Each structure stands twice: as C-alpha cells, then as structure tokens.
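so i finally got all the pieces together for this one. its two components total, 610 residues if u count the protein bits. some of the lines might not be protein, just check the labels. i wanna see the whole assembly predicted at once instead of chain by chain like last time, that was a mess tbh
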Amino acid sequence: MKIIIVALGGNALIKPGEIGTSEQMINNLRAPIKQIAELSQEGYSVIITHGNGPQVGNLLLQQESTEEVTQMPLEILVAETQGQIGFLIESTLDEELMHLGIDMEKYFLTVLTYVEVDPDDRAFKRPTKPIGPAYTRRKKGYVKTSKGWRRVVASPQPKRIIQSREIKKLMDEGFIVIACGGGGVPVVKNETRFHGVEAVIDKDLASAKLAEQVGADILIIATDVEKVALNYGRVDYKYLDRLSVSQAKEYMSQGHFPPGSMGPKVQAAINFLEAGGKKAIITSIEKIKDALEQKAGTHFYLDGF
Amino acid sequence: MKIIIVALGGNALIKPGEIGTSEQMINNLRAPIKQIAELSQEGYSVIITHGNGPQVGNLLLQQESTEEVTQMPLEILVAETQGQIGFLIESTLDEELMHLGIDMEKYFLTVLTYVEVDPDDRAFKRPTKPIGPAYTRRKKGYVKTSKGWRRVVASPQPKRIIQSREIKKLMDEGFIVIACGGGGVPVVKNETRFHGVEAVIDKDLASAKLAEQVGADILIIATDVEKVALNYGRVDYKYLDRLSVSQAKEYMSQGHFPPGSMGPKVQAAINFLEAGGKKAIITSIEKIKDALEQKAGTHFYLDGF
C-alpha cells in the first residue's frame, strides 16, 4: 500500500480576509479532507500534516494579554495547536469518511508529535518564521513580511521526528494519521530528556523528514497556488509543470522561491527526493487528486529519472 | 496482558500554592509517571488519562483578555489542553522509560480524544465544573467553591469515547497511550458530523467509560489523598480501605463525597465495576504502585465479590 503524506498549508485553514474562527477553518478544510478521504478509500495509506503559523501566533498574543495566569513557552503553544487543529481536521475527516460510508472501516488518529532540532541551529540567532496576525502598521519587535508586519520566531531544521516509529507502526496497521502539526513541537535532547525549545519548525520541512523516516512514497505539499512559478507575482511569471532537483536548486539560488513562502516548500520536495522519496508534488489544496493523476501541480524529479 | 488506566488528577500537575508553570507541571508529573513507566516494564498495558481544570480555564481567561484575535469555543480549548498536557506527560514518560533503559522497546503516543455527550444532558442547564484560577473575592459570573471563587461550566456525562476502537488497537499492539485528556473534547452527533459543544467532561467519568470500552482490567484514580474518607475535613473523619459499590452509593447519598471533588471519582469507580471492570482504586499520585499491591488506597468491589 502506497504511503502518501499530504501537508496542508495554513491557507488550507484560513483564507484571505478571514479571521480564522473555528467554523471558517472547518469550512476551508472540507475540500482537501474530502479528497484525502477518497484517497484512503482508493487504497492509499495517508498521513496528514498541517501548518499553524496564524494559530500559534494567536495563542502567543492571547497569553501575553493578561498577567492573571502563567504563560507557556512557545513550544507548548505549538503542542496546543496540534490539539486545536488536529480536532478540526479529524472531525472533518470523520464526516467525509461517513459520507463515503467507510468511517467504521477506517482507523484514524491525531498523534502529538515532537521533533528534534539542533540546539546550535543558526536559526536561533536569526528568526525567520512569521506567526500570528499581520498588522498594516509598523509594530515594535515585529518584522515587515509580504502580508504586513508580523512577529517572527526561530525556525530550526527538523533533524528527527521522535514519533516516527509509532507513526510507521500505525501505517502498518492501516491507520490514517494526523501528525507533525505545526511542524511538530521542537525539542532538543539533553542527556536523558527532550526539552522543548522556543521555536516553530517549518511544517513542510518536517513533513519531508517524516516522509523519509516512515518510508513514504509520495509527498504532496498543498498550498494556495496550483503550481510553482518562476518570477511569481511579476507579469513575466511562468508556471512549472515539472522541475528537476538540480533545476529547483538553481532557481532557488536565483531567488525565485522566497524564504517566507515557496522556498521551504521547494526545499522540502528536494529533501524528500534526495532522501529516496519517489514523488514530490506542490499544488493547491483543491487539486490534490488531480495532481496525483498528473493533471495539476508542479512535479519534482531527481535528475536522470 | 492486563490493561490498567491511570487517571491523573489536576493536582498531579499543579500543587497548592503553585501557578502551574510548565516546569512545575513537569516536576509534579515525575512521581506518578515514574511509577507508570515501572508498571509498563512489569508487563502492564497502561493508558494514562488526565484532568485539565486549571489549564482550560487559563486558556479561556487568556483568550478573553484580547479582542485582537478570534476566540475558540470551549471544546477547542479542551483539545488544546490535550496537546499541552499530553506533551508534558509524554516527554516525562520518555525520560522515565530512558532511565529504565526501555524507551526504545516501548511504543507510546498521545491520542487526541473526543467524547460523545447527550445534547439534552441536564448538565447544560446546570453548570457544575470549576475551571481556571480561584479568586479570594467575589467575581461576577463566578461561583464560590472550596478553593475560592471560580468559573463553572457544564459537565455532561460521557456516553462514548469516539477513539476507543483506535485506542484498543494500540493496546493490542503494546502501546502506552495518553488519552482522554481533560475528559475528552465534548461532541454531539448531528447527522453526519460530530459537533463540539461548550463543556468540560469530568476526566474520571470519561476514564471509567474508556476503561469499559477498551475492556481494561484496573482503573486507578490518582489524586491528592491516599484514601477516600467519610466525614472528610472533620475531626471524626475515617479513611476507608475497602468499599463495596452499595456502600459507596449509600455514603454518596449521605453527602460524604461532594460533587466538586470526591463525588465523580467514587462515581467513576462504581460505573467501572458495574460495567464489568475487575478492580477500581482511588489513591494518591505517590501511591499508585503501593495501591496495586494492596498497601494503599481505597479499593472498591462489587457486592458479593
């Protein structure tokens, strides 16, 4: 049975102009989750991962708004978003499986996931990951991004998904698994303990690492555009149907894929293929199934294949 | 292999006088989790459940403190505490398993859990469950409890643990499972969807229901006293070593076990035994193993056994 990992971007949850209520998130999840339920019915073994940028930033802002109760470190807030978004995804999945009449045949779970990072990762000195709401005006301690002024936090590289053994076992047993939410809770190993660290891991890079560790066949990164483009946002933009790893690296070095948006997605596709993955696709959340049938998306391949 | 469910009370996480920082919670978890790791080593199949009263109330208070970002309904906050506390428990468990040198032999997971309740449950009209911080002075909308003025929310009866099939399967595969956090995310079934409802389910009653559904052998409710007492808090109090279901019901009707504290624990023990469970014990978080060896705790039994 083929293992496929579908990584859902934050935009799968909150569309432009929305404030991200739970009802909005559930509505937005319907399109991708319906396709995922169908893939499961068709015999794919599916792992769903998801982002948490807006949500974890909201929790941070909320806890800073009062001194009446104690605040949690950032990594614990990541764990909280795994519960929050995991519940929204899982209950939507449950509904779509019911529509197909296969909810009682399928086992599915949301798995709390933590991910080891290097305590010396340079990212800790140079925060790049935007989280929480975007403001139109300059805000102290915030950084200007494509969406406005946002808080940015450290985003170290995922070295190892700690729960990959457990997740692999669940795949063997036929489970649909929701994992690596928000890129996973970042931890460092300190003698006999995993300590949380204040950071938010990129969920696409974490998904590629999970795909590698569980031996997934296909990695689909589902975002708000159907294909990767050169010169994105300019009049001379050009969508790409196929992209070799070496081409992707070249375009990346030319600045076609910016760090805050398409960059980590392309890097995740590269990482997965270089680690032995068979297929990596970037497409929109509406075109997941089309992309699998070669009718949509940017398909990455290893040079020589 | 015997399945044992250990339900950890809120006091396993936050001791009197503490504000509930993540470090305090980790320190407090050490004693019960060390014993649980040993039980796993000794061959027990263990499920850990936990409360979330202070934590879910804190999240509610935090999100009410700002209008800058959208607020989540109470059940989503319960899901968030499953991530928050699940991570603290799991990383502590990981450490204790490492100390025993069996971390790589054991599979363990925190499972997002939701629990079906009756939309017509009378609890929705009569909130009883205290959550969040306690205040020494009267506070609008708050209710006076033994710990001070607290917010109280609806606490409906758990009808069915939705993930019990999945959890049972994990037990068959030898996993240690952390589940039913905060009593589970309360949902009602509405045609083809589970909708969250604004409530917090009692974690002991949810644990008893889970114990029944997965066919657990033993339910241990770990709290801050070593035994159940008659006339608790009075000079003529009397600790109970053994308690039959019919005696328990009689004492309950006499008001020995108040609703906000020992009441639901005793009720959970009764429910589990009446549903076919073999052993139900209430004891302190320090005495879990002693209680299993009959050296501590109040042991419940069905009349005639």
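Chain A touches chain B through 57 residues (CB under 8 Å).
Residues 74-99 of chain A form the longest helix (26 residues).
anyway lmk what u think
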